[in-house]
Hints:
InterPro entries: GPCR_Rhodpsn, GPCR_Rhodpsn_7TM, Olfact_rcpt, Olfactory_GPCR. This is Olfactory receptor. This protein has a single domain, classed as Rhodopsin 7-helix transmembrane proteins (Rhopdopsin 7-helix transmembrane proteins), CATH 1.20.1070. The chain contains eleven helices and two strands, in the order E-H-H-E-H-H-H-H-H-H-H-H-H. Helix 7 packs antiparallel against helix 8 and helix 8 runs antiparallel to helix 9.
Amino acid sequence: MANSSSVSEFLLLAFADTRELQLLHLALFLGIYLAALLGNGLILTTVACDHRLHTPMYFFLLNLALLDLGSISTTLPKAMANSLWDTRAISYEGCAAQILFSLFLVGAEYSLLTVMAYDRYVAICKPLHYGSLLGSRACAQMAAAAWGSGFLNAVLHTANTFSLPLCQGNAVDQFFCEIPQILKLSCSDAYLREAGLIVFSVSVLFGCSVFIVISYIQIFRVVLRVPSEQGRHKAFSTCLPHMAVVSLFISTAMFAYLKPSSISSPYLDLVVAVLYSVVPPAVNPLIYSMRNQELRDAMRTLVECTILQHIRL
C-alpha cells in the first residue's frame, strides 16, 4: 500500500485525449492568462504612477491586483505547459507548492475583500472619520494582516494535508493540485483532521461574509438617502464592482469545497475550479475599470502618455 513518502509525483487531469483539443485548451488558457496579466498589470501601473489614486481604496485595489496575478500564475502556467508537452505529471514538491500558494493567495484575497468592504463602509457611512480610521499606517497594517492571515492559513492546511498517508494512487482529478482532490487519495478516516480544519476555515470565511453583507446593508441605507443622483451614482460605482467580485469569489469557492460528494464529477469539479481560480483574476480588472470613472480616466491618461512617448522615440 502506497503512502505519501512513496509518491514522487502526481498526475493531473488531462483536458482532452486528442492533440488538437489539447492545443485548443492551451490557446484558450493562454488568452485568459494574458488578459489577466494585462488587466491587473495595467491597474498596478496606473495606481502606482497616478498620485491622484494614492488613496486607501486604490491602495487595497493594488494589493488585490497583486494577489490576482499571483493566484492565476500559480495554476495556469503548469496546466498550459502540460498541454503543450502532452503530459500530466507534476512533482510532489510542485503539487505541495501549488496548494500552498493557492491557499495563501486566495485566503489573503478574501481577507483583503473584507478590508475593502470596511474601507467603503467608513468612506460612505463615516466620512468625517475616514482620514483618522484609514490613515497610511492603518492601511498598511490591514493589508499586512490580510497577507499574513492567508499565509498562516495556507501553511497550516498544506502541512496537515501532506502529512496524511496516501493510499489511493496519485491521479488528481483536477488541472491543478487542490486539497479536496488530495484528500480523495488519503487513507480512510485519515482525512478527518484536515476536514475539520476546512470547516474551521469556512466558518471564518462565513464570518467575513457576514461582515461584508452587514457593511453593505449600512452603505445602501446611507446611499439611498443621498439627495443628489450624482452622489448616489458615485457611491454605487465604487461599491457595486466590489460586491460583484465578492459574490463571484465566495459562491464558487464555497461550492468547490463544500459541495456534497454525491454531486461531484470530474467535469463539474473542473468547471467550478475554473470559475473560482481562473475567472476572477481575469475579470476583476474589467469589473473595476468598467464601473470606476476615475480609474478609467487614469488608465486612459497613462496609455496616451505611453503612446506619445513611443511616438517621440
